[in-house]
Write a structure and sequence with these properties.
Blueprint: H1 4-13, E1 18-22, H2 30-37, E2 45-52, E3 55-62, H3 69-76, E4 83-85, H4 88-95, E5 112-115, E6 125-128, E7 134-138, H5 140-147, E8 150-151
């Protein structure tokens, strides 16, 4: 299991400008995080792991966005029944983080990553920071550059 410290070490090593923000008591939902930070829900970024067949795909989406599995299936040219949200054990095994704390970057090289264009409407967003009470404040452009994500309407 990875820790926020490992994420912090990654950020320092890559010279990524980001700030950890602690939410005492944590925030289990996008709306809770947005309220605690006094930002619109769209300013919260969620990192969701999907399985497309056997392939893990990290999807970076704006807080209120519901990811359409049909669009993911079309993007990967597979039947929709081959696309599913990864289970908590898979998320932990593949990313090293628990569901709800997965950061958008700092993963093993080669993890296929997609970003919804709605994420790019902000100069700064808040994303998973490696623990349920930690968020990462950073530029979505940095996320895009670091992950080499494909920008896809999801």
């Amino acid at each position: 299991m990875k820790s926020p410290q490992e994420l912090a070490d990654f950020l320092v090593k890559r010279a990524i400008e980001a700030e950890f923000v602690t939410l005492p008591g944590g925030a289990r939902t996008v709306s809770q995080a947005a309220a605690a930070l006094n930002v619109p829900p769209e300013g919260i970024v969620k990192s969701l792991l999907f399985m497309v067949g056997e392939k893990p795909v990290l999807v970076i989406a704006s807080g209120p966005t519901r990811v359409d599995t049909a669009r993911l299936a079309a993007y990967f040219e597979v039947p929709e029944n081959q696309v599913r949200l990864a289970g908590s054990d898979e998320v932990r095994r593949i990313t090293g983080f628990d569901v709800g704390s997965v950061p958008p970057l700092g993963h093993e090289p080669g993890l296929c990553t997609l970003m919804d264009p709605a994420v790019l409407q902000f100069d700064v967003v808040y994303a998973g920071g490696g623990a349920h009470d930690q968020l990462l404040r950073l530029s979505p452009r940095v996320i895009l550059e670091e992950t080499e994500a494909d920008v896809v309407e999801l």
